[in-house]
Amino acid sequence: MRGLVADDEEGIRNVIREYLEFDGHTVAEAANGAEAVSLCRMQKFDFIVMDIMMPVMDGFAACREIRRGDPSVPVLMLSARGEEYDKLKGFQLGIDDYVVKPFSPRELVARLGAICARSARAQDGGAVRPAAFGGLEVDPAGRSVRVDGRAVPMTPREYDLLFTLVQNKGIVLSREQLLRKVWGNDFLGDDRTVDTHIKMLRSALGPYRGFIVTMRGAGYKFEAV
After folding, report:
1. What is the mean pLDDT of residues 153-165?
2. Which of 28, 31, 82, 204 is geometrically suited to a Cys-Cys bond with 100, CB 3.0 to 4.6 A?
3. Which residues does the UniProt record annotate as the domain OmpR/PhoB-type (predicted)?
4. Averaged over 115-140, what is the pLDDT?
5. 183-196 exposure pattern, b = at least 16 Cβ within 10 A, e = fewer
């Protein structure tokens, strides 16, 4: 697989590149966000490792631009800051995972492998048929959602979370179950990640936000009323 590593610190880029190449990947490098965007416009990457704090264009702005051209490329974001706001902003932009510096290169490679595998499964789409719940239309195979006839853009993780809930309509899924089904068994985050994405998903569904029901102390379920 071919990946892009964007970080203004050459030493960090070198370490990540060495571990990724040892894992069998080919790697391109960018020293700032603008350079990363330019490279993504010229070629397609299978995954991106993106630092937040970079000159010229930061990682958030670069990720936003890259997502416009390739909304499905897996993105792992790096940052020396671990504030919840930064994580939330990154997830709202559609990143797939978030690693705080200093980090273990082996863990980073493992996380990349996990998100790339999940992305590949999501691209496959499965054999699940489209479903409609009043004005909410969900098409897992086409990875599309429409609200009252209007296409609703979502991050890849929001799609996966909604499809999982819809496929288990009426069944309460715990946060741990949703983490396993949507993020994978090797995801190293905590169950607050689910709550954050549920909040964003409800916002995207607008008038149908109530279809995602919180079961206090148990988890969430999809229940069209």
Report:
1. 88
2. 82
3. 128-224
4. 73
5. beeebeeeeebbeb
Q: What is the pLDDT of residue 181?
A: 82
At residue 32, the 3 state secondary structure works out as coil
- CA atoms of 196 and 161, how far apart (whole Å): 11
Measured over the CA atoms of residue 76, residue 79, residue 83 and residue 86, the dihedral's sign is negative
pTM: 0.58
Please state, in angstroms and as integers, the Cα–Cα distance from residue 198 to each residue in 68, 89, 145, 158, 191, following that order: 23, 14, 15, 8, 11
Residues in the chain, how many? Answer: 225
10 Å Cβ neighbour count for 98? 20
Rounded to whole angstroms, how far apart are CA atoms 221 and 150? 24
* Nearest CA among 127, 168, 173, 144 for reference residue 71: 144
Return the structure tokens found at 133.
Answer: 């719940």
Residues 6+ apart with CB under 8 A from 42: none
Average pLDDT over residues 74-79: 89
